[in-house]
Write a structure and sequence with these properties.
3 domains, 5-stranded mixed sheet, Lambda Exonuclease, Chain A, alpha+beta, 12% strand, 18 helices, Nucleotidyltransferase, domain 5
């Protein structure tokens, strides 16, 4: 029996099922058969749901004489579908959450709005995405709407729209008939399968999925080579053809032998990484070249919408470290007021200029490319003193890049969270992370309670300080454990 209870009926093929199967058939199968293995929704997902509901309500307010919602996830879907057809045939009112159900009951669709523009039937969905026209999953969902409206109402929609996160209405074409037919067949086959698919996508694609722990913990237990960042999805077949499926088999593979479709340099790197897993220890490639004290630990907290956000970087975090006791962190937070974004940037520039002047040659240690990228973007957008950008770029020191070149670790990801924890560092809030930070930032912007806003700001500053200390812990571990040059 599937965990979470046996299904009461065969699952319907919905627009979301079509898109999910095209993205990851395993996820669709798990949603139906192993729902109990899903992680509870995190803070970020809850905030996105709240924003999506509010956005949809705002768009609904644009319509006059709106009927619905006809389907609100309660009662009989068949009754909602019958009422939808009655309204389409008898009146020209715009419909909110109209329901369409195939004759066999196996397929359903609920576009956000169906309405008439003179004699043209328009189907409109509402999304937070800012560029929905670039999303193949949305095009597949529109194609499913089209198929169900044709079948159930014998009507041909004349226009398809998506209202994006800006509130802009965009004409978006449904997926071609052939692509939709393939996606529909894949969803049907997936939901009918008795066994769980074995798909394992890249870590970056899986980490936000509710079944991430289920799939990746199982893959680790099975010692699958796909958990290595050095084994790309397109290379798995080549390794399998060589009889290499487990980490132990990969670690023992002869590095002088070629693997079809896998570049030799990447194959050798994968063999070394597999050895780290087999021995559960670091495998050194080079002694890391680390800067001397003093250094600045440097970490930014930014909105996941990037350039499209009103405040792309809402916290500029840094800590000047002379090698003594734990350094004092500084958090420059953008205020929720007109000009707050620019004022935070100007405060950061002033502080950075002071540090650079007082400590010639000091390095600003960050993790990956995010920090120098956004310093450059802010300087280009809001200006900076002459030579400031060049001085910061020269001072920036990418600790992740040094780690990548220096050693391989038995880790499924080289994000700072995985690396620092493996080296013994712990965040004070184990649930914190970049998406969690974005969610708290949104809540702090929307709350009307000053005390709550202050509490959330303190949580964000604490998380940023832990990120800075995590880099310090990694730097010290590399320094203390590196082999002689």
């Amino acid at each position: 029996m599937p965990s979470g209870g046996a299904p009461q009926r065969a699952p319907r093929i919905t627009p979301q099922a079509i898109a999910t199967a095209a993205d990851c058939s395993r996820r669709l199968w798990l949603k139906h058969n192993r729902a109990g293995d899903a992680a509870p929704p995190g803070e970020h997902l809850l905030v996105l749901r709240e924003r999506a509901d509010a956005h949809e309500r705002a768009i609904a307010a644009r319509f006059t004489d709106l009927a619905g919602p006809l389907w609100n996830r309660e009662g009989s879907f068949a009754d909602a579908a019958a009422e939808t057809l009655r309204l389409l045939r008898e009146r020209r009112r715009p419909l909110y959450q109209p329901a369409f159900l195939s004759a066999d009951g196996g397929r359903s669709s609920v576009p956000d709005f169906a309405w008439w523009d003179d004699d043209v039937l328009v189907l409109t969905d509402v999304r937070l995405a800012l560029r929905p026209e670039t999303r193949p999953d949305f095009a597949l969902q529109l194609a499913h709407h089209r198929a169900l409206v044709r079948e159930c109402a014998q009507l041909e929609p004349g226009r398809f729209e998506i209202v994006n996160g800006y509130g802009e209405t965009l004409a978006v074409a449904p997926a071609p008939e052939s692509a939709y037919a393939n996606a529909l067949r894949l969803a049907e086959v997936t939901l009918a399968a008795a066994e769980e698919p074995g798909d394992l996508r890249a870590h970056s694609a899986c980490r936000s999925c509710e079944f991430y722990a289920h799939c990746w913990n199982l893959a680790e237990a099975e010692r699958r080579i796909e958990i290595l960042t050095e084994v790309q999805s397109g290379h798995v077949a080549g390794w399998h053809a060589r009889g290499v499926r487990t980490l132990e088999q990969l670690a023992a593979f002869d590095a002088t032998c070629s693997v079809r479709g896998v570049p030799d340099a990447l194959a050798k790197r994968a063999i070394v990484a597999a050895g780290a897993w087999r021995d559960d220890s670091a495998v050194w490639l080079h002694a890391p070249a680390l800067p001397a004290y003093p250094v600045v630990w440097f970490d930014l907290e930014g909105d996941s919408r990037g350039e499209d956000a009103e405040i792309p970087i809402y916290l500029w975090g840094m800590a000047l470290d002379d090698g003594g006791d734990a350094p004092h962190s500084e958090a420059i937070v953008a205020e929720f007021a007109e000009g707050g974004n620019v004022r935070a940037w100007e405060r950061f520039v002033t502080r950075a200029e002071t540090i650079l002047a007082a400590h010639p040659g000091i390095r600003w240690v960050h993790w990956d490319h995010y920090e120098p990228l956004w310093v450059r973007r802010y300087a280009e957008r809001h200006g900076a003193p002459a030579g400031f950008l060049d001085r910061v770029n020269a001072a920036c020191f990418d600790l992740k890049r040094v780690l990548d070149r220096s050693l391989r670790l038995p880790l499924r990801s080289y994000s700072i969270k995985h690396v620092a924890r493996w080296m013994g560092f712990a965040w004070r809030n184990p649930d914190s992370g970049s998406e969690w930070s974005t969610a708290l930032h949104h809540r702090s912007r929307t709350t009307a309670d000053p005390a709550e806003r202050s509490r959330l700001a303190r949580e964000l500053a604490e998380y940023n300080e832990d990120d800075l200390l995590a880099m310090r812990a990694i730097w010290r571990w590399l320094r203390d454990h590196a082999p002689a040059r």
